[in-house]
Amino acid sequence: MRRFTRPIPFAVFALLLPAAAAAQSALPVDRGLPRHHAPEPTTAAITPADLMTRLYVFSDDSMLGRRTGELGNVKGTNYIAREIERMGLVPAGDDGTYFQTIPLKTRALSDSSSFAVGGVPLKLLDDFIPITPRSFDASSVPIVYGGVVGDSSHPITAEQAGGKLVVFGVAPGVSLRRMFRAAPAVRGAAAIAVVALDSVPARFRAFFTRPRMFVDDQPQGSEQTPVFLVSDAAAGKMFSAPPAGLSPGTAGGSAAIHVRYSLEPVPYPARNVVGIVPGSDPKLKHEYVAIGAHNDHLGVGRPMDHDSIMIFNHVVRPEGADDGGKRATPAQQEEVDSLLAVYRKSHPDRMDSTYNGADDDGSGSVSALEIAEKLQAMDPHPKRSILFVWHVGEEEGLYGSRYFTDHPTVPRDSIVAQLNMDMVGRGDATDETGRTKDGQPLHGGPNYVQLVGSRRLSTELGDLIEKVNTEDGHDLTFDYAMDANGHPSNIYCRSDHYSYARYGIPITFFTTGLHSDYHQVTDEAENIDYPHMAKVADLVADVAVHVADLDHRPVVDHPVPDRNAPCQQ
C-alpha cells in the first residue's frame, strides 16, 4: 500500500508528531516459520502451502525489494509472468506479451537553476524552492502581487496577472496543509510564488529538490504553471514595500528565472504484468472482471538492526510507517530494551537492508497468482473473462494502475468491476490494523478483513460480496471502519483500486490492514499468516466468479469522481 502522504510538505512534517500512547505488552507474534523455505509445486486449489511457496520466492532478498525501475522489480515481474504463462493465461500486455511497460522517467533539478530579483540572485533552499517539477526560463518576467492565498474577496484579475510572476502571501495562522489545498491558480500567469518558505524547517527543504519519478505520457503543452516557495526576505526584494500591506495587482520589480530539470528513463523497465483467463460465454467473454495487486515495494535501504526495529515498532509504532513520527516515552523505551534483551537470548543479531514487502504487496501478488491458477483450472471458466493486472509503481504514486486505466490493453468500458488486494497477509488480534475515524485503534482476528470502497460506486457490488461471504460459507468478519467518509487515513485513495474508480468502474479493496511491520525491513515472509491469507484469497476468487456470472454488469448507482481532481475519501 502506498504510504499516506499529506499535501506537500506534510509527509516530512510527520517526523514532528508526539510520542505514542499505550505500548504493546509482549514480543511480536512468532509464527514459528523459517527465514527460508524451499519451493514446492503448487496446485489448482488456493492453499496456505501454495501461498507460502510463492511468497518466500517473491519476497526473497534476491528480489532486492522490487522497487519500481530497479533490477529487483524486473526479477519480480519476470517471476509473475513465468507463472501465468505456465498456467496458460492469455497474454494481454504490449505486442502479445504479458508486460505493459510504462514510460517512467526520473526528473532531477539541475544545479544550474537560478532565480534573481532585480539582478540580485536568490539562494536555492534558503530563498526559493521550485515546487512544480518542470523547466522554466524567463530572462525578465514582471512581478505582481496577487493577494493572500484563499482570499476570494479581492482576487487578482487575469489581465493583471497575464505573463507575470504572481506573488501570494499567506494569512497568519494558516497551516501549510490548508494553504496547499487552496494553492492559487491564476489564468495567464507565467509563474506563481508563495511567501511560505520560512515555515518549512531548513532540515526538510531538500525534500523538494530530490529526484522524482513521473510517467511521461502527457502531451506537450499540458504542464502546470510553475509554482515556487519563496522566503520573506526574497519577497521583500520583489516590491518597494512589504507585500503584506499591498493590494492585489500592485506591480513589483522583475525576475530572471532559469529552472532546469534533467530527464532520464528509469534504469530498468517499469512493467505491469497482464494476463487473462478467457470467459466461457460467447457474448460475455468480451467483458472483464479485473483482479489486481501491486508488484513493487521499496527496494534496498541502509543496513539496520532488524530485530530492534521489529520490537521498537511493535511497542511504539503499531502501524509501522503510518506511525512514523511517534517517539518512545521513557516507559516505552524501557519496555523495548527489556523485550529486546529477552529476544537476544535466543536470536542472533540480524542486520537487514532489504524492504522485502512480504505483506505489502507480496501477499496480494501471490494471492492473485493463486486465484489465477484456480480459475484457469475451472471447467467451464466463468462466463466473463477475468483480467489479472499486477500493477507497478503503486508505492511511487499509483503509477502502474493509473497508466493501465489511462491506456488499457482491453477496452476500458468492458471492465465491469475491479477487485484489489493489497496487504492481505496479516490481520490477527495483535496487529493494530488502523484506527477509527475518531482515532480508536482497530485490531484483527482469525477471520478479519477490511473492505474499502465496496459500495462507493455500486451498492450492488457491496451487497453481492456480503452475500457471497455468508451464503458460500466464507464467514469472514468484514471491518468497514477505514472506509468512513472523511477518514483521515484516506485509505480509499492509497492503492490501485482508485485508478479504476475514477473511471466509474465499481471496485472493492480487500486488505487485512496495517501492522507494525508496514513499510519496514521487518515485513518478511516468516511473519505472514498463511491460513488467514488463503481465506481472503478464496473469498476474492469466489466474488470474482459471481460477478463474472451475473447476467448484467454491477449497477453504478453513486456519483463517479472527477478523475482529474485529487482523491479525497
How would you characterize this protein structure?
It is a single chain. 25% of the residues lie in helices and 22% in strands. It is of the alpha/beta class and 569 residues long. It has two domains: 46-60 and 88-105 and 267-303 and 356-548, Zn peptidases (Aminopeptidase, 3-Layer(aba) Sandwich), CATH 3.40.630.10; 111-259, Glucose Oxidase, domain 1 (3-Layer(bba) Sandwich), CATH 3.50.30.30. Strand 20 and strand 21 form a beta hairpin. The chain is globular. The chain starts with 9 loop residues before the first helix and ends in a 21-residue tail after the last helix.
Question: What is the secondary structure topology, with strand pairs?
Answer:
Layout: H1 10-13, H2 48-58, H3 71-87, E1 90-91, E2 99-102, E3 104-109, E4 114-117, E5 120-121, E6 128-130, E7 136-148, H4 158-161, E8 165-169, H5 176-181, E9 191-195, E10 212-215, E11 227-230, H6 232-238, E12 251-259, E13 261-265, E14 270-277, E15 288-294, E16 299-305, H7 306-316, H8 330-344, E17 351-355, H9 358-377, E18 385-391, H10 394-397, H11 399-406, E19 415-421, E20 432-435, E21 441-443, E22 448-452, H12 459-471, E23 477-479, H13 497-501, E24 507-511, H14 530-548
Parallel strand pairs: 7-8, 8-9, 9-11, 15-18, 15-19, 19-24, 22-23
Antiparallel strand pairs: 1-14, 2-14, 3-10, 3-13, 4-5, 4-12, 6-11, 7-12, 14-18, 16-17, 20-21, 22-24
Helix pairs in contact: 2-9, 2-14, 3-9, 7-8, 9-14, 12-14
